[in-house]
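Sharing a chain and its predicted structure for anyone who wants a worked example. Both blocks are below, sequence first, tokens second.
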Amino acid sequence: MRHWTFAWAIGCASAALAAMAWLWPWTRMPVITFLSYGMAALGLSVLMRAGQVSFGHAMYALIAGYGTAFTVRAFPGADALVALAAGVSSAVVLGVVVAAFVSRYRGIFFGMLNLGISMVFYSLAGKLYTWTGGTDGLRFERPPLLGMTLDRGEFEWGMMLLALASAVLLGWAVQRYFRSSAGQIAAAIRVNETRLEYIGLSARAAMVEAYVLSSALVGVGGAMLALAQGLMTPEGGYWLRSGEYVFIAILGGAGHAIGAFLGAAVFELILLMGAVYFTNIWQIVLGATLLAVIFFAPSGLVGRFRQFRQGRAARAVNHE
């Protein structure tokens, strides 16, 4: 019954987002942005389940975004879904290569190694002007979507629906991964990696699998946002963007796949409210929010909700 209730809640939330985007077209890009950030933070949540935090995962959004842009520019008339698949594939290929050696490390060494690699790609994107457009970025024409040539408003609407469907599907898939044997092995790395090796399971293989899955999820978010904007810049791979993904993952909590999207929604809401009411101090608002989460909800919004639900269940049993 609980699963059906949760599915009903997700369906209602998705319908509400679609209705909002239909009634107020200006909300389509913010919704696409928050869903893209949520999918990227979902990738960080996969690593956080294994007790690892990457400070450079925005490089996969960078590679996927440029892979998408290159595909659209090199193959005029290519469908947006083809460009999206090409961008995500490029992120996965890079993820496989990087995972081959970063999977050896843990803790701060894991995080800083990812940061160092990401800054190399960020610097290359800014300096290879002929290929990437340098700091100005790489613009590309709006591609057809499902074989249809759309104007700007229709394309944003289509991309919003695509991002929403992708978020629901990927969230479901990652939650299934968390409950699978592979996900449980990855979670065991955080608890006791040595004991995991003693019973004949490879912690490194589990880390490689989690890392590649994480790179694919971040790649989907980066490619989706690049398609919607029609522009890819090196800023998409800067360390601040990686920090935003980590912030969102911590804010939402890694206990459930929905946490990444809850964190992304709150993050985007803070940015929008900050642009209106806290123009000069919106960074302070973000910092205060993160501090509040660390002190009062260290397991994120999802963890806090679970604690509340367990407490209510316990009180109900005591009353009986």
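Comments welcome. Residues 246 and 303 are 16 Å apart (CA to CA).
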